[in-house]
Amino acid sequence: MSLLQDPEEARRVIAEMRESAQNRAESARRAVSRMSQLTAEAWSPRREVRVQVDAAGLVTDVEFAEWAPGESALSLARAVQQAHDRALRRWEVAMTAIADDEYADDPALRESTIRAAREALPERILGVGDDEEDDVPPTDAPGDDGGRAPGPAW
Questions:
Q1: CA–CA separation, 27 vs 40, rounded Å?
Q2: Are 92 and 114 spatial neighbours (Cβ–Cβ below 8 Å)?
Q3: pTM for the full predicted model
Q4: Hey, which of 31, 83, 134, 144 has its CA 20 to 30 A from 16?
Q5: What are the pLDDT digits (tens) for 68-113?
Q6: Which residues lie across from 130 on neighbouring strands?
Q7: Domain span holding position 110
Q8: Backbone angles phi, psi at 50, to 5 degrees
Q9: Cα of 75 vs its chain's centroid, Å
Q10: In what order do the strands lie in the sheet containing 49-53?
Q11: Is 126 within a domain?
Q12: Domain containing 27 — which CATH number?
């Protein structure tokens, strides 16, 4: 018997399809909400600058260590770039985690979301690990350089 010949079976299938579509829509709403609120931040390797990026990967905040203005412009420019790159890597990890969480039951949507996030990144970011120790907060206490001595000899 075909689906069209059994009205009860047709209603059941339609109800299942509706429920599935509603579940996917709710997952998508949660994912979009989480992604739109996403921020990521990272410090440069020497911790002279911290960069924060928003949901689009754009810089929203830059913070310099108290001692950073004594560094050369080239050194600071490199530090900003390194911190930005690290923040983008964290952004990509967070986007992937959201896709994994919200689209666990839909591998195609999960993969396309992850692919779109990665395609938004500069090539220099992809495939590069984040080997920093960002769990250690910067210290600006006098006499406490956290094992890092700023300055030209550094």
A1: 22
A2: no
A3: 0.73
A4: 31
A5: 999 999 999 999 999 999 999 999 999 999 999 999 988 999 999 9
A6: none
A7: 3-119
A8: -120, 135
A9: 26
A10: 40-43, 49-53, 59-64
A11: no
A12: 3.30.1310.10
